TrEMBL record:
Protein name: Flagellar motor switch protein FliM
PANTHER family: FLAGELLAR MOTOR SWITCH PROTEIN FLIM, YOP PROTEINS TRANSLOCATION PROTEIN Q
Subcellular localization, as worded in the UniProt entry: Bacterial flagellum basal body; Cell membrane
One protein family per Pfam: FliMN_C
Lineage of origin: Bacteria, Bacillati, Bacillota, Bacilli, Bacillales
Gene: txxe 669-fliM
Stored CDD domains: FliM
Protein family (similarity comment): Belongs to the FliM family.
Superkingdom assignment: Bacteria
Amino acid sequence: MVDVLSQNEIDALLAALSSGEMDAEELKKEETQKRIRNYDFKRAVRFSKDHLRSLTRIHENFARYLTTYFSAQLRTFVQINVVQVEQLPYDEFIRSIPKMTILNIFEADPLEGRMVLEVHPNVAYAMLDRMLGGQGNAPTKINALTDIENSIMERIFNRALDSLAEAWKTVLDINPRLEGLETNPQFMQIVSPNETIALISLSTKIGDTTGMINLCIPHVVIEPIMHRLSVHHWFVAQKKTRAPEEIDILNSRVSKAKLPIIAELGSSTITIREFLSLQPGDVITLNTRTDDGLHIRVGEKLKFIGSAGTIRDRMAVQIDEIVEGAEENDE
């Protein structure tokens, strides 16, 4: 953004040029010189601001889906929000997480490569405590997971990956599947240490327990679909065409839908007293003639004119005329 000088600053600059304190030629030289910017090759910039904004939008939906999922599973108050989306080297991510944590390693077809959903021990053990009937309190001491606890954790987060698939539907249909669960980050090497990753940090609150959930997506994994994370993909309206299979399924379901068909002989208006005094054999005069056609309605709309009759000793109605786009007025 270009800085705009105030009137006082402009007056001071002109006064300095007039008095000789500043040399106009020197200013021109400085302006024409090439500006050098430091570049750290260990922190290569692979994601543009546009990409990071798109990832933020996607994972804000992911956070909402996770909130709903965990609230239902744990039956307690759960709040999850996106705190930050940034890019950094994979090695820096590994050094920033606790030595004892919950690392869910997964793949998401058709993307090639592995990603990680890291869950802070406070959050993970609070979930485990709720699943086992506790109050959802974080432990004072973090121990290694038992086989039963490991199995419960895998089941919880394997289903949580369905929320990730739902959040990514606007970009790509993915099928995440949990490969394994690790607790020591030093034993997890999914990409080279200098590989750039997108780190999505989610603040998580379960009851009174707070912690972080971090989603690590290596650049090499989503590089083939980076163009789908652009503003053009998100905001340019595109006409979506249905596949032939979807059209066939839709036609099949519509053809099986049931609609009420009513054949009206006519109508009449009587008082409540007359209605209460009706006896077998009484005759109610309708507003139609015997030679008038029956009004046949589909749902609430008048569609056909027909005549009454019988077929094989059963009452029937024959369609004599099709009423195009007309509805009978209330009389």
